[in-house]
Amino acid sequence: MKNFKLVALVILSLTAISEDGRLDRDPNDYKYTSLGIYAFDAKDDSGLEAKFSLSLPGPLYLVAEAKADGVNVDDETYDKFTKAIRVGAHVGIGDVLNSVSVGGVSLKLQNFLDVFLELGIKATDIDSDINFSESDSQANVITGIRFGNSNAWEGKLFIDFSKETEVIQQECPVNLVCTTFETSQVTYVLDDETDQKFGFVATYNLNKSSAVSIEASTSKVLDSVIKIGYQINF
Question: What is the pTM assigned to this prediction?
Answer without folding.
Answer: 0.82
